[in-house]
Write a structure and sequence with these properties.
With 385 residues, the protein is an alpha/beta fold. It contains ten helices and eleven strands. 31% of the residues lie in helices and 16% in strands. Helix 8 packs across helix 9.
Length: 385
């Protein structure tokens, strides 16, 4: 999916994410007229060139999973990529509960049909497991911002690497415990801060512990919580640029509840399993119970196929584009406005305003006090995402 000049456009409350007006963007650009071609030129071959180059370089994707212990985060990651990405540990079996939140990352290279994917998964053991969970989200937000800072430090060097390693978190899957009630205050406080920093995909973990009626009621309550507290989850409607994006994202967001109405799918109700079973002569991934086998990839049993399609098959590149063009761009603007506090290292570029004796360059940098990004300047959970 091609992205995206509109990525810097967002909610009308945030001036840094607004797209320029149509009149201002087209005033100085010459009119482009269609040209009638007299024969075959071969412009379409550029697609093959891009494919060959992309296949040679491979792709990077960084995902973070957040939730309490015992919600099946490790199993879900293994199910998504059909490989042993992470070893599952059952709580209470000789494994002590972490006293503080600890972030753990593991990187694997997955190859399928000649396409290489460098996948980094970051787990957050200890999140929400303590009696006092005050500000337990600080290490997570600090890690996400730290990856933005590493990328920025490489980007502003005079002599840059040809390919800057991308360790930025492209997506955070937030596991909601299947209580059947509402989002907890911890969930709301954390999601309000998280959605301004990274793409958030909430899921109802261990959905097989709820009946279908309980699951739908719980989903509806979560959606009410998200709207009430201004929590924007991926994919945001403000990023639907054309009718194709709208149709694709509508398949993810909505489904036909009856012949006359549609309801929202997000958050997805998912079940993870990394063991195969034989069902009617077919080998399927699922969880075996005394009542039968819960098939992970069966839409009648859970919505794992929708989560897999969103993260891998249809929106993987879109997640990376929004991370670069929206979340990282907001961080970059804020840090460059505060460039006098950046550490001076090898290849340092002085980004401070030019002295009076030197004429300042034309454009946005000529403004000595450009606006700051409110989400980065201070932590205010009442602001819009």
């Amino acid at each position: 999916m091609k992205k995206r000049q509109k990525k810097n456009g967002g909610s009308p409350m945030d001036p840094l994410r607004q797209s320029p007006s149509r009149s201002s963007s087209r005033a100085s650009s010459p009119r482009t007229l269609p040209c009638e071609m007299l024969g075959y030129v071969g412009i379409e071959a550029v697609l093959d060139q891009l494919k060959i180059k992309a296949m040679k370089m491979g792709f990077e994707f960084n995902i973070m999973v957040v939730g309490q212990s015992g919600l099946g985060k490790s199993t879900m990651v293994n199910t998504l990529f059909k490989s042993k990405m992470w070893k599952s540990t059952m709580p209470g079996l000789g494994v002590p509960t972490p006293q503080t939140l600890q972030l753990q990352s593991v990187t694997h290279v997955i190859e399928e049909s000649g396409v290489k994917l460098k996948l980094t998964v970051t787990d957050t053991p200890g999140f929400g497991d303590q009696i006092n969970n005050d500000k337990c989200w600080d290490p997570i937000l600090g890690y996400i911002n730290e990856q933005y800072e590493h990328y920025l430090q490489e980007e502003i060097l005079i002599t840059r690497q040809r390919h800057i390693p991308d360790t930025r978190v492209h997506c955070c899957v937030y596991f909601v415990p299947p209580t059947g009630h509402w989002l907890r205050p911890l969930d709301i406080e954390f999601l309000q801060r998280l959605c301004r920093t990274v793409n958030v995909v909430p899921v109802i973990a261990r959905a097989d512990s709820l009946t279908i009626e309980e699951r739908e009621a719980f989903r509806h309550r979560i959606q009410e919580n998200l709207k009430t507290h201004g929590i924007e989850v991926y994919p945001q409607k403000c990023f639907d640029e054309d009718i194709n994006d709208k149709i694709l994202n509508s398949k993810i967001r909505d489904f036909e509840y009856s012949s006359l109405c549609y309801t929202e799918r997000i958050p997805f109700a998912v079940v993870g399993a990394d063991r195969e079973h034989i069902v009617n002569g077919r080998c399927v991934l699922g969880r075996k119970t005394k009542w039968g086998i819960i098939e992970v990839e069966n839409m009648a049993h859970c919505e794992f196929p929708l989560l897999r399609d969103l993260l891998i098959r249809s929106h993987l590149q879109d997640l990376k584009d929004i991370t670069h063009n929206v979340h990282y761009e907001n961080y970059r603007i804020f840090r460059l406005n505060e460039s006098h506090v950046l550490p001076r290292g090898p290849g340092w570029v002085n980004l401070a305003p030019a002295p009076a004796s030197v004429p300042a360059p034309a454009g946005p940098q000529a403004n000595p006090s450009p606006p700051k990004v409110g989400g980065w300047a201070k932590d205010n959970s009442d602001e819009e995402c």
